[in-house]
Amino acid sequence: QVQLQESGPGLVKPSETLSLTCIVSGGSISNYYWSWIRQPAGKGLEWIGRIYSSGTTNYNPSLKSRVTMSVDTSKNQFSLKLSSVTAADTAVYYCARVGGGYSYGPFDSWGQGTLVTVSS
Amino acid sequence: SYVLTQPPSVSVAPGQTARITCGGNNIGSKSVHWYQQKPGQAPVLVVYDDSDRPSGIPERFSGSNSGNTATLTISRVEAGDEADYYCQVWESTSDHYVFGSGTKVTVL
What we know:
The complex is a heterodimer.
Chain A: E1 3-7, E2 11-12, E3 18-25, E4 33-39, E5 46-52, E6 57-59, E7 67-72, E8 77-82, E9 91-98, E10 107-110, E11 114-118
Parallel strand pairs in A: 2-11
Antiparallel strand pairs in A: 1-3, 3-8, 4-5, 4-9, 5-6, 7-8, 9-10, 9-11
Chain B: E1 9-12, E2 18-23, E3 33-37, E4 44-47, E5 61-66, E6 69-74, E7 83-91, E8 96-99, E9 103-107
Parallel strand pairs in B: 1-9
Antiparallel strand pairs in B: 2-6, 3-4, 3-7, 5-6, 7-8, 7-9
């Protein structure tokens, strides 16, 4: 059973860059897509983007100009960077695996989520 | 951009059937996935590819998709089914996932 764990600072200053890492255990990061999703308090889920183990990415058009994702297969982990953050980026951030064996499959495994607050 | 519309809330008595709709333009041509999220927890996949269930998900959870509406049906509702439910699709024209706004299911 694959497990995912988000890590990174819980507090980021406005205008700075949010950086999170998702460590994958219990399975290989290779040959899968991996996604980031966020959820502001009391609100719905928002897809941020995804990365394939080869490094190919797709981003939410609404966030594309500020998002960068990367993958490190040697460490079995992938990362998210979101630049120029504002209070509106305060949310619980989740990482997840795209399952189903195809590129538009469901998110079959999720991390527990990590709260990132943007505040000075 | 592609929009998925869900009712904000659905209320159902224990033992009855809850139906949660997810509306989208020609959604019947897409694969719809459904997630259950309880307070303070990460979402859990309950139905994928319109009507398939992951292992461990009770048969009480089922899905359908046709035309402009996908539906998640929860039969013989239990108190433990109280949660938020989200639908999701892949929008191929712009290569991104879209989530519905979510439906809060309350068990009376």
